[in-house]
Amino acid sequence: MRAWAQSITAALLVVLVATLATVTATSDTGDARSPASVRMVQGTQSPTAEADGPTRPNLVFVLTDDMRDDDLDHMPITRRLLADQGMEFTDAISPHPLCCPARAQLATGQYAQNNGVQHNRGVHGGFQALDPTQEASTWFRSSGYRTGFVGKFLNGYGPRDVRPAGWSRWDALTRGVYDYVDFSMTGDGDPRQYTDSYITSVIEDHTNDAVRDFARSGDPFVVYAWHLAPHYRISPEGGRGLPPAEPQDEHLFVDERPSAFDDPAFNEEDVSDQPAYLRRLTQVSREEVAAENTARLQTLQSVDRAVGSLVETLEDEGVLDDTYIVFTSDNGYSLGEHRFVGKDVLTDEALQVPLLVRGPDVVAGTTSPLPVTLVDLPVTFAALTGVTPQWQVDGTSLAPTLRGEAQLFRDTTLIQTGRTLGDGWSHRGVRTERYLYGTDGLDTFLYDRLLDPDEMVNLVDDPAYAGVRSTLELRRRELVDCAGWTCNQQFGPVPEPVTTAAREPSP
Length: 507
Prior knowledge:
By secondary structure, the protein is of the alpha/beta class.
């Protein structure tokens, strides 16, 4: 009896230690700022145990570069195989819409104030600002997963840089990252220079090779395939130009009307009330925008085919039904809305990204309006594969929604941009279902997206919105330093704007 009792005690201690470790890894136990009036959104923690059953699910994460949400309408294979067979999130954003900060969020599950990557360049930017040991791939590898990375990582990553921890197969772009036809890859320790190959096709082939090797090993696997398209081309000499398409796609979309042309904000007539980074702009050339739109859509056709071949490879290897496939972009892209072409601004065109998820238990052919972000994906991946994050994460797992369950979710999301100088921050703000608000301390904007979905009227100085501005500023101050659960709060309703009648005193 004594031996039996000792064994039971030991087992209980193991369970207690594991539970405490999980709470420490997934909650902000040291934060005493939680007011009683603010509710924590549940569902941010991942399961502590590995997935039950004889087969642990696999996961493949496909990422594009600078893809607009509406570009997905021109990718029929991806829509048929992922959207029609999975779930589409219709309000997904990249909350820090620039390459390196977005990718650092995907690598760590944290916002820039916690992972250190605020821009593409400077002391607060690029690969140099990322701790390569703080990479979510370690969660999966330490739990028995094979892990493979193929494609573009963070700007500044070179052939002599350290291999980020956690990847059992590492095949990243190193030189000519933005050139499309003249580039180098690490080749998992066997580096190779490509001078006559198309970059998307190479990433496609290497991704499929990794999937085949991992599937045949019998081990569960996680593979990231991070594409370059439809990012504009940068030659080795530094010149910028349109992204080149594969020859078979060069005839496509030549007469395509950019969707931006139908946006009232395209070449906005009066930008005098807009943030300073938009006030300085002259109207864009419709011909140049049309040409860039055509080139971008052409390059995405090769990504569309790559998604098709990925699904075919998974099916051929007999693992498709056991694999989650996630598709999104690192940020959106503006094509002349508010006279702006590009990203790294807090406008809907730059923030919005496509997000599709297919896999076991995902309700096929459905959509979700949850205001999700890229920061939510790493903890979601952990939940889907049954692994535990090894540090505090700032996102919320989307697993309940993917299974068709009701899910409590935050009502206010942090959005921000960085700069190369000073403290590394530029505009930082919040986004709610109705409002978009941000400031750099001097330059402030407030849009009522219910009445002004195109974000053309800055209401920051409108007396009717004084209460709205004050409330959103309080939330902004709370969230700019958030970590863990404090990034995922439900603050409650924002006050309604005060009508003219309500402001005028009674006679």
